[in-house]
């Protein structure tokens, strides 16, 4: 039984409309998001929240050794103002009472950076998970920080 051309056309239009949201969502992913930015977080490894729960929480939940508490906007404000690359690099190599890598030498820089961004967001910062460019900036700051530490010895 052959369908009328108008019914076939309507059927195809409905399918096209049903697929439109999927196509738009995929387009946003490829373009880097709704804003069209080219920020693409580095893939692989643990999420920032997972690292926070497994490593950072031990100190940042209670404020051990003056660690800024998770979600405390006032305590994090000055740290967030330092910038994502600077704060992350300093914490990565160890700062104040915090050991390098938060005490977990198995963490990658990307994982550690995600955790730092996760905590900054919880305190009102607008940090995103790091992309390749941010990781390069963090590495640059890490080198500068290590030179400063070496000079003080």
Automatic annotation (TrEMBL):
Pfam families: Cytochrome_CBB3
GO MF term set: electron transfer activity; heme binding; iron ion binding
Keywords: Electron transport, Heme, Iron, Metal-binding, Signal, Transport
InterPro entries tied to this protein: Cyt_c-like_dom, Cyt_c-like_dom_sf, Cyt_CIE
Gene3D superfamilies the record matches: Cytochrome c-like domain
Record-annotated Cytochrome c domain positions: 46-119
Signal peptide residue numbers: 1-27
Name used for this protein in its record: Cytochrome c5 family protein
Organism: Zeimonas arvi
């Amino acid at each position: 039984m052959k369908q009328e051309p108008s019914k076939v056309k309507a059927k195809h239009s409905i399918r096209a409309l049903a697929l439109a949201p999927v196509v738009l969502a995929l387009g946003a992913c490829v373009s880097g998001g709704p804003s069209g930015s080219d920020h693409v977080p580095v893939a692989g490894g643990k999420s920032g929240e997972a690292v926070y729960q497994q490593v950072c929480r031990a100190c940042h939940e209670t404020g051990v050794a003056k660690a800024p508490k998770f979600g405390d906007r006032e305590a994090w404000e000055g740290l967030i103002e330092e910038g994502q690359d600077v704060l992350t690099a300093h914490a990565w190599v160890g700062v104040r009472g915090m050991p390098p890598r938060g005490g977990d030498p198995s963490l990658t820089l990307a994982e550690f950076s995600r955790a730092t961004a996760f905590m900054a967001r919880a305190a009102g910062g607008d940090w995103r998970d790091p992309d390749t460019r941010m990781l390069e900036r963090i590495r640059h700051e890490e080198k500068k920080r290590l030179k400063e530490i070496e000079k003080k010895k």
